[in-house]
Design a protein that fits this description.
Four copies of one chain form a homotetramer.
Chain A lengths: L1 H6 L2 E2 L7 H12 L22 H8 L2 E6 L3 H4 L16 H14 L2 E7 L43 E5 L10 H6 L5 E7 L1 H14 L4 E10 L3 H15 L2 H8 L1
Parallel strand pairs in A: 1-6, 2-3, 2-5, 3-4, 5-6
Helix pairs in contact in A: 2-5
Pfam family, one (chains A, B, C, D): Isochorismatase
Keywords (chains A, B, C, D): Signal
Protein name (chains A, B, C, D): Isochorismatase-like domain-containing protein
Chain lengths: ~250, ~250, ~250, ~250
């Protein structure tokens, strides 16, 4: 059991209302307590023995942060988009802070966004009716496809365009990550039951060793949907232990 | 809204305790009332005007049934497998009946199974510790990989081997289905939050027009997990209408 | 034999020096003589009985043209790029004319281009040494990634970014094409033995019914390499007949 | 140039008539002279300094041998199959010996085979006319799908079923290889311009560091087709140096 937990993708589960607290925790974890999340190091690979900066750098170079769908049409109510995720706006500051901490640690930051053709010909079938007259959710070049206010792609970050739920579906994300030696993922963004979850499951199928969802930097339409995702995973994968492990 | 419902993958949601009732309903639906589930017919395709047998045959030839992971190690408690799905055994009769009805209607039946190398080298990383000494869950050739008692692959059915949650991950399933003109899927088997759900989402990403999960022929470890999956989808995709639509 | 030819991807083979003649032929073919290239029409689909404009429109709506890698770094010697394809510049006019004819017929035009990160982290391993100091072949935003002079993306066309040889590798191209009902492909661009050939073979694996390479609108480093590709395919697939079929 | 060669997939090119000589060479290479083919070792990985057995073991554990389509229908003229590769039978002994040497070195051997449904529903469109009455090329369970006489799958080897040219198309091969740390591939089997070449190019796209085609353990319909493949790659990728490198 411990060994499968060690390999399994896991979740941080805390009350949604404790954002401030969680971010502090996240920062502490990212700045040094993260040794426990990379339990399986391939034979011969660099194995740090202390918490010196260099050791940390080696460790985080194997981790990427996926920031998913943090675009105006998804998180900014002012856009009036039909694909707005009600809980999205509230986590923008948390996402911004998570990204800042990640950059500081040398974690590779990937901005996963949707950018669709004005015709809607590259969107899911069930959403194509939303596109007409050159407009529709996250059409490339329109304001709705831009990142939410307060979020920016910086030099060294990577922008990846997807057209379906999963960041891995019909994209070269796995190629970019694996050839850099990325083994662990931290996922933030919207929305929990669809794009977040589908990306997480694909990552497990693609054998990333650790896939962490930051519960306070992800969101869904409603808190109960957001939490239901985690409940499911707890029960079926038994990830609750990993939470304790991370907190330790 | 109605149009996106028409294109959207949907769910039948009824009380789990009403199995008998549901199967009767399913049979009735499969035998004629299914016209409403294929609302979007490509220009020029065969469009039936009555419920004559030929019309039905034309319609069902575009539908496939995916029977997922109904193997002894997953559903037979006697195997003592670590991957047993607690709720699995109870739905074996429902799956058997659903398959029988499907065959009767000319629906293409695909048995999606796991068959792993004794070394475990083709299983998810987090499950590899379960393989040693030539044994492990659903090892090819061992009893645990066989279909549950009462389920059989018949001539005309198709067996597809997968190595991850989704029936579409790293398999030729999409190729087999699309080149036959399959546009709609009916999904049965175990278990709801992982293999079932991942297959359903992949199917939506791959633009199958209808993806129906038969709620009484699928199962999870516990009823609340099984239902949580549906609750999620209801809330985020708004599929409740499809239930009414199917019943009509 | 006729039946497998009918389903097989084929090639136009004419002397490279006869460009002018070939384009005239191509235009004639695209404007009406193309009926023979779509021999297998699914039951019930629109089946034109004459060469009226409407019939042609119906037919060409199932065909897409893939324009591959026609970017300055690949075809413009003035760029001095290490990835220059020697024979590329000479076919720019032919590609431009082929695209013009395609648009006129209502064929969906897809501009397949490479756009790489300045770090080279999304390029093939064997090419990564070409990237440093924010520069390298077809880096996104730099001049070398632009289309060759004389080529333009127009409204209604589609731009698809790839990171490997094949237009289908880790992209959503198949998704865009299949959901539009595209069954046949016409391929132009550079270079024959790598990106062109790999795209063609992937298309055959993905079950496009017809994959036509326009021999005078594709190029390689040298004429013998360009032709060797066709010789290979002739001998192993027996496509020479299709040439006659197309000319007829 | 040396650096891109070092990363590039390469080819052994010798006269086809020198089989005996080549195999001796191959054996010598596999038994110790192979140090030069793994020039790029990730930071921190095991780097052997001598030719002691242990060092060799470490090195070869990162290499897999793909044996492609060595089935009766492809290489045994007695089967009278329409998919027979004329040059296939002649390389069976070479393939057998290459596999033996590979096993001896601890190289992971993968037997890539086609096994199709009797209906032909999982074969390429252009080959489906070859299937009827429960028969057709390499139908699962029929004699034509068996390995050629003299070839056997042993314990520790892996059998992988594919349905298209490439061993990577819609299969879990990449997943099996990458999670074992495989970085280099040696390819044998039939036939050069289709399944061999397509597999090799896919492997390059998937960022395997070295992809070696053993020219005397691969074959096509005719020697000139077999060689044309290599000529193409020489000219476009400049692999000739690798031949020298390997021979050294």
């Amino acid at each position: 059991m411990p060994s499968h937990l060690a390999l399994l993708s896991c979740l941080l589960v805390l009350l949604l209302s404790l954002d401030k607290f969680l971010l502090h925790y996240l920062k502490r974890w990212l700045s040094g307590g993260g040794g426990s999340i990379i339990p399986r190091i391939p034979t011969g690979a660099f194995r740090p023995r202390s918490h010196r900066p260099m050791a940390a750098a080696g460790r985080w170079s194997e981790t990427a942060m996926l920031v998913i769908d943090m675009q105006k049409d998804f998180v900014d109510p002012a856009m009036g988009s039909p694909v707005l995720v009600a809980g999205g706006e509230a986590v923008v500051p948390a996402v911004a802070e998570a990204v800042a901490v990640a950059r500081e640690r040398g974690i590779f930051v990937v901005w996963v966004v949707r950018e669709h053709d004005p015709s809607g010909r590259d969107v899911e079938l069930f959403r194509r009716h939303l596109y007409s007259g050159g407009k529709g959710p996250t059409v490339k070049g329109l304001k709705g496809a831009e990142l939410a206010d307060g979020l920016f792609i910086k030099e060294g970050d990577y922008k990846l365009v997807k057209t379906r739920f999963s960041a891995f579906f019909a994209t070269h994300l796995d190629s970019v990550l694996k050839t850099q030696g990325i083994k662990n993922l931290v996922v933030v963004g919207v929305q929990t039951p669809n794009c977040i979850r589908q990306t997480v499951y694909d990552a497990v199928e693609l054998d990333y060793e650790k896939v962490i969802v930051l519960i306070d930097a992800t969101a869904a339409a409603r808190p109960d949907i957001h939490l239901a995702f985690n409940i499911l995973s707890f029960l079926s994968w038994g990830c609750t232990k990993s939470y304790t492990q991370l907190k330790a």
